[in-house]
Amino acid sequence: MNNMIQLEYYPREPQLDKRLAAIATRVRPNAPLFDIGSDHAKLPAYLLRHGHRGEITISDVREKPLLTAKARLGEGNAAFVLSNGFENLRFVSGADIIIAGMGGETIADIILGCPFLQSFTDNERFLLQPMTQQHIMLSRLAECGFMVTDTEEVAVRDKHYTIYLMMKGATE
Ligand SMILES: C[S@@+](CC[C@H](N)C(=O)[O-])C[C@H]1O[C@@H](n2cnc3c(N)ncnc32)[C@H](O)[C@@H]1O
């Protein structure tokens, strides 16, 4: 039944390039999922289509991507939140948090500016894919107790991307 609802909202299979596909494979199927700066929302749409069972939150700082996301996923299948970073989001224990396709400095600003930054532990996983300034992102996050637990390099045509799986250390 759930599949039928999803098909109604997905006339076509959302196609992921290798960059988004590499992120998608690392999302835990039962985890509450946040896609911050979702834009086209292809990634959460794909995950929903492929049986993601955790609650999905899609957010963006701009209104237009949220309209696209609603059209893609169907209004009842996710929460759609207009938010600058974590500003209008709430802490959810055990979440997988995707922040992809932005500059590394912006990603660090979003995480370190989170109003509930202190609540994160090694229960929450961050899937980060900076387009630039990855070293700045890594050093700023490391200073605040975040550690890289895995990385994956992906090449799409002539571009290379690194996906970082990060979490906040149990102790600072
Ligand atoms: C280039 S798109 C990346 C889309 C998708 N995450 C991906 O990797 O393909 C960047 C998106 O991040 C959003 N964005 C930029 N800064 C943001 C912020 N501080 N909070 C939330 N969204 C933000 C932009 O509006 C845009 O939709």
Structure characterization notes:
It is a single chain. The protein has a single domain, classed as 3-Layer(aba) Sandwich (Rossmann fold). With 172 residues, it is α/β, with parallel strands linked by helices. The protein has a 7-stranded mixed sheet with strand order 3-2-1-4-5-7-6, sandwiched between helices. The protein contains 6 helices and 7 strands. Helix 2 crosses helix 3 and helix 5 packs parallel to helix 6. The termini are far apart. S-adenosylmethionine (SAM) binds next to strand 2, strand 4 and helix 5.
Could you write a compact summary of the structure shown?
The protein has 172 residues and is of the alpha/beta class. It has helices at 2-9, 18-26, 42-49, 63-73, 104-112, 134-143; strands spanning 33-36, 56-60, 79-82, 96-102, 125-130, 146-156, 159-168. Helix 2 (18-26) crosses helix 3 and helix 5 (104-112) packs parallel to helix 6 (134-143).
